Structure formats: C-alpha cells, structure tokens
Amino acid sequence: MTDTTPDDDPLVAYKTFMRDLIDRRPSGTRQRIAEAFGTHKSFISQITNPNLRVPLPAQHIPSLFDVCHFSGDEQATFLALYARAHPNQAAAIEELSGIERDVVHIKLPDFGDPMVRRDVETAIKAAAEQIIRLAQSVQKKT
User: Fold this and answer.
1) Structure pTM?
2) Quick one: DSSP state of residue 27?
3) Alpha carbons 37 and 56: distance in angstroms, whole number
C-alpha cells in the first residue's frame, strides 16, 4: 500500500476520482468497461486502483465516458486530473476534451465478412438519419 494522497500524486488523484465514479455505477459496470476496452476485468481493477501505477491508456477514455455515462462536469474534472498526471499526453487529452456528446456507439459482432459489416453499418446509419429527421420534424411542429 502507499501513503500518498490524491493531492500528493496526480496519478492517485485521477484514479481515485475514476474509481469513485465507477463505484457509484450499477453492478456489472466494470465488466462492461472491460468489454468496451477489449480487455479483462482484472485490467479495469488495475487501472482504477490508486495503489497501483498502471495508467489508463488515453485511447480508452472515450469508451470509459460512454459506458459510464460521465456527466459533462465529471468528464471535464477527469480530463483535468488525467492531464496533470500525464502531461506528455497533452495532444491526446486536448483531442479528447472535444469528445462529441451526441454520438451513439453500437457494438457490432464480427460478421466474418467485411461486405456484410459495411452493409449493416450503412443500414444502421440510414435508419438513424431517418429517425432523427422524423424527431426533428415532430419537434418543429410542437
């Protein structure tokens, strides 16, 4: 164990913040994060444990926000803490700070055929665009 506090160590600070937010989420959240990251649940335990030096890779931050539904304030606080802990990741963090909040991610299975995958993606996009147009037209009428 370590005697450092979040104020002493930037890595401890963001990991403590992340752990506390995840702990307030429903049961099974760590497993959903592991699936989104394409890793094992034990890795999630390592990156959320302030006593371990295992960092959260920056490329996983959008998935973390998506799975855990971090609020805008929670995202901003997390990114500020993460930037303090990982100053060499400035470019990645700056890009992440502009995360689109109006994006829906859909996990697709491995179809085994890139043509089938492309057709499914095209169909999903077309259906989503039609639903959005419908919702916008209903909203304009009210």
Assistant:
1) 0.65
2) T
3) 11
Q: 78 in a domain, yes or no? A: yes
Kindly state the tokens that stand for 24. 């307030």
- Judged on CB neighbours under 10 Å (0-12, 13-18, 19+), 92 is middle
Range of the domain at 119: 106-142
For the chain, what is the domain count? 2
Using DSSP's 3-state secondary structure scheme, residue 103 falls into coil
Q: Write the burial class of residue 61 (CB in 10 Å: 0-12 exposed, 13-18 middle, 19+ buried).
A: buried
In order along its 142 residues, the chain shows pLDDT tens digits of 444 455 689 999 999 999 999 999 999 999 999 999 999 999 999 999 999 999 999 989 989 998 999 988 899 899 999 999 998 887 777 777 666 656 677 788 889 988 998 999 999 999 999 998 999 888 787 7
